[in-house]
Structure formats: C-alpha cells, structure tokens
Amino acid sequence: MALTKRQKQVLDFIAGFLNENGYCPSYEEIARGLDLASLATVHKHISVLETKSYLKRGFNQSRSIELMPKYLQEHQRPRPAAMEIPLLGRIAAGAPVEAVEQRETLNFADYVGNADTFALEVRGNSMIDDHICDGDRILLERVPEARDGDIVVALVAGSETTLKRFYREAGGMVRLQPANSTLKPIVVPARDVQIQGRLLAVLRKYK
Question: Does domain 5-75 have CATH number 2.102.10.10?
Fold first, then answer.
C-alpha cells in the first residue's frame, strides 16, 4: 500500500527525531513538529502506518513507537563506494618510537552503512574520565539491551536521556555510573530504564 504525502512526513519526522535524540518522539512532539491539529490526528496516522507495517506500537509504554524493517529498507541510503582513509602506522604519545610505514586502511563503511547506527552530540562532562568531553560527537549502535560496563544512552523514566556506564544491581535496580568523580550515580528500578544505544566510537574535531 502506497503512502500518502502526510504519512511519509510522519514517518520521516519520527526517523529524524530518533536519529537526533536516540529515542522516539511522543505523540505531542509529533503533533507540534508537523503542525497537526490534534492528537487524534496523530493517532490516526500512526494506526494506518502500523497497518501498513511501517511502524510498531508498544502498549502501556512511553515513547513506544518503533520503526519497522520495511521503512529502514526503503529509506536506507546506498553505501558510499569509498569510505576508507589510509592508516599509515602508529604514533607515540609517550616515548618516541621508530616510524614504520604501514599499508592499511581505516574503514568507516560499517558505521555509515548501518541503519542501526546513529550519532549524538555530547553535552556536559559526566563522562570526562572516559575521555568523552562536552561537544564530542559519539556514534552509537541502536540496541534494546546492554551488558554490565557498557557505555549507553539510556532513557530514564520515559522522559530524560543520559550517557552513562550501565550496571545491574541487586533488587531489580540499575546503576547508571558517570565517569566523573564529582558526580553521583543514578540508581533507579530497571523497569524505568530503556536502553537506546551502545557506544561505538567518539569523534572530536579540533578545527
């Protein structure tokens, strides 16, 4: 079934919001973002898109809209032909070492060509001791779960996102641990934490 112009706008808005924020928009945010008259109109579009297998809704969950593979397959960008730069060797950051030229490449295609990879800009210094600084760009893999010690983007209580190390605690609790000795960890029930993504890489521009 073909999409109407408005249905495509709703899908594209959800995908863009997800890529920018790491979590899906609420119905209110969709309505504001697309100047829709009412939440009933948003519900109608979401229901139709779910029927057409572009979206899936969870029940009794905040921000529970999920893009289905059908949308990702139809809208995934073709992988660029060349996403490699030369890796010429290793450079000492301590004592000098002998320079030996190598013939390798650093390939970014695995990141750029993956529909589950997204980027965020870091705000704040809660992860400074893990060398993640304010203003850095981070690449993340969209995953629903995490292992102890993973650096993740977590949605807490359905409203706020944070970048922290993830640990499971006794009694069904989760600890979101900052890498900054001046800050305290966030300890909340596991049911209040939704994993949005796992850290893949940190990018920092100096120019």
Answer: no
Catalytic hit among 5, 52, 164, 184: 164
Would residue 164 show up in a list of annotated catalytic residues for this protein?
Answer: yes
Per CATH, which fold does 116-203 belong to? Answer: Umud Fragment, subunit A (2.10.109)
- Contact predicate 139/200, CB 8 Å: yes
| pTM strictly above 0.90 | no
Q: What is the DSSP letter of 192?
A: G
Q: Which of 8, 44, 47, 126 is the catalytic position?
A: 126
Is 52 annotated as catalytic?
Answer: no
For 167-195, the pLDDT digits (tens) are: 999 999 999 999 999 999 999 999 999 99
Q: Are 186 and 156 in contact (CB under 8 A)?
A: yes
Cα separation, 64 vs 101, whole angstroms:
51
CB atoms within 10 A of CB 145: 9
Listed residue (145, 192, 142, 184) closest to 166, CA to CA: 145
Cβ-contact 53, 14 below 8 angstroms: no
